[in-house]
Design goal:
The chain is α/β, with parallel strands linked by helices. 38% of the residues lie in helices and 15% in strands.
């Protein structure tokens, strides 16, 4: 009994308890803990259907220590808008934060997200970007990178994996006039926490996208999620970015950047093991484009 009290006391102040059933080494759950450190108790969370929802709320239990609402894949933004309207009616300053995967963000929920952003609602939207529909078996999403092997873009004799280039959600957010838009990865927990704090302090809608390596989807070892997130930044494929009032900030951790070849990132992951040198060169060109664009 005393041991149980000690255990509960230790984790009672955490916004997300360790009692979830995600994959060992899950990059998304590491990112979530970094997000939770930026939130106060006066926060309402909306989670779209996905890995985060199913691994933290197996009925009748919940790992959440904050008010939490489950939405469908497509309507997290609409539910958040309704909650915010009720809070505004009561003149409450409670923060509203949406958490969703790339499938719910890039694809299924995009129309409702656009509407929320057009209305200028003071809601933070966080996308945990695993680059596939991880919860339903690793199908390709609008976030899946070129060349990746998924169950719907399989590599084989007549296919090299996904033939589509990853959709640029940051540009879509910026096109809606958001005052705060940022990108990070699981490998930089303090960067995530700081960006969430900045987003919550910025009036109006904000968007943060966090690359969250998926152990089964990326075909990596359980201790490699952090390494994968770090290499994504170091190669220029997924730089740490921050836009304040539409202007690219220099505050993200890209100082002293010395680009590594994309092969360092790709070779870590089984989803890219089929690529030829020519195809790897195509991905290197994408990284080079980022390095030039963002002056890394």
């Amino acid at each position: 009994m005393e041991l149980g009290k000690t255990y509960m006391s230790k984790y009672s102040k955490q916004k997300l308890s360790p009692g979830h059933n995600a994959c060992a080494g899950c990059g998304q759950l590491s990112a979530v803990q970094s997000v939770m450190r930026a939130l106060n108790d006066d926060t309402i969370l909306i989670s779209a259907t996905g890995c985060l929802e199913v691994t933290t709320t197996a009925h009748p239990q919940s790992a959440w220590q904050l008010p939490w609402i489950h939405s469908l894949f497509e309507n997290a933004a609409a539910i958040a808008s309704g909650i915010k309207a009720a809070l505004n009616k009561k003149k409450k300053k409670t923060k509203v934060v949406i958490q969703a995967g790339d499938g719910a963000t890039y694809d299924i929920g995009l129309g409702l997200i656009s509407g929320m952003w057009e209305r200028g609602e003071d809601i933070l939207y966080i996308c945990y970007d695993t680059e596939a529909y991880s919860n339903t078996g690793i199908q390709a999403s609008g976030s899946t990178p070129w060349g990746a092997n998924t169950v719907t873009t399989p590599a084989g004799e007549k296919s090299f994996g996904s033939s589509q280039v990853k959709k640029d959600m940051l540009k879509i957010a910026l096109a809606h006039g958001l005052n705060y838009v940022a990108q990070s990865t699981t490998a930089f927990p303090d960067d995530i926490t700081n960006k969430v704090k900045k987003a919550l302090a910025t009036p109006g809608p904000s968007y943060i996208q966090i690359l969250s390596p998926c152990i089964p989807g990326w075909k990596i070892k359980t201790n490699q999620a952090g390494q994968g997130g770090r290499l994504a930044v170091q190669t220029g494929l997924y730089p740490l970015l921050e836009y304040v009032n539409g202007i690219l900030s220099t505050s993200s951790i890209n100082q002293n950047f010395k680009a590594l070849p994309v092969s360092a990132y790709l070779s870590l992951q089984g989803r890219f093991k089929h690529l030829s040198q020519k195809e790897i060169s195509n991905i290197q060109a994408l990284a080079n484009k980022n390095i030039k664009l963002f002056k890394l």
